[in-house]
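[09:14] KT: can someone run the structure on this one? pasting the chain below
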Amino acid sequence: MIKTFSLTDVGMKRKINQDYVFTSEEPVGNLPNLFIVADGMGGHKAGDYASRRSTEIIVESVKSSTQTSPIRIIREAVEAANAHIHEEAAQTSELYGMGTTCVVATVSEDTLYVGNVGDSRLYLIDRDITQITKDHSLVEEMVRVGQIDRVSARTHPEKNIITRAVGAGEEIKVDFFDVHLKEGDIILMCSDGLSNMVEDEDIRMITAASPDLAEMAQRLVNEANNRGGKDNIAVVVIDPFGK
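[09:31] RB: done, structure tokens below
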């Protein structure tokens, strides 16, 4: 039986929390479960609204979808959120320029299905830690073409510039991944408030040393804050087989 725990934190520097999460271990529409992390951008009100409203629309779309393929259900939902956020941003001055990252996941038997836009991440953790999603960011593009290395990317001054976001344009491209799961795997979804502050290997070690999911999530948030907490932090941890 799948087990989860989620947590968001404003961090040490920000006044408003623009990160938003949704988790359901129970079926949502035709999906057996549903997990979302969204990290809003824009002015204080706009970023907060974008992440929350996008998540709500994704959940509503999944509930009403007649599709049966997890990938099609997720794509349809993210596209619906994008259309709504883009339209609202164009019509309301205080929401102009808003957008949000999103990572959407579901576990069906022993397969994990993931869709992502932006630089919020999904990791698979066992004896190693593997980033499943690919960041849609300017710095990640620079790494891919060899302009900078992975070490330099962590502290690059343009690290927070993302190249794709829900609401940023009329059209949206969602990347999809499917992963075979095995006993002992832990799934971690997070905003860049965690991944920018805590190295991947340290995330793996904290995960391995935590006795349960609640403590795991709290320790990860605490570590991000201990290292400066420069941004909001969102964490969803999932044990797909509920050990």
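[09:33] KT: thanks! The mean pLDDT is 94.
[09:34] RB: yep, looked fine to me
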